[in-house]
Amino acid sequence: MFDARIWSMTLLFFCADMSAGSLSAFNPTILSQLGWTSHRAQVMTIPVWIIGIVGGLLTSLLSGRTNKRWPFILPAILISLLGWIIHYLHLSPPSIRYFAQFLISFGTFVQMPIYRVAHRESEGAGVSKSGHGFTAGHWELCEFCELECFY
What we know:
Radius of gyration: 17 Å
Order of helices and strands: HHHHH
Number of helices: 5
Transmembrane segments: 41-63, 70-90
CATH superfamily: MFS general substrate transporter like domains
GO molecular function: transmembrane transporter activity
Number of strands: 0
Signal peptide: 1-25
Number of domains: 1
Oligomer: single chain
Subcellular location: Membrane
Strand content: under 5%
Shape: elongated
Distance between the termini: 31 Å
Keywords: Membrane, Signal, Transmembrane, Transmembrane helix, Transport
CATH architecture: Up-down Bundle
């Protein structure tokens, strides 16, 4: 329960989970700034989610075949971070922030399944079963925090 791997994995998952929650929360605002109707704005959220899903599936497949996690996690963190920097700078026009949503989606949905796999793999690496239960509980807490922050 006091293993640094458990805490680092929980912190990384928390950051990725908050990014995933922000996509749902901020997409409508960003798309309304582009002047689209509500129906059109809803349709335009679909590509953001598709990029994330496809990126997550492909990198999970590649990470499983190569049996390596960090070459996929590190670039995903950097890509997601770039998207957050674009949002932080509040660049104009709003289409740039819409592009940032794609970066955040890709980076986030690449990370989340790989963190889950890395967490499961560490079970045999001397981390106690209670430590894994502890992590799973914290991951659920992350999702609760996401709901409280964005909805």
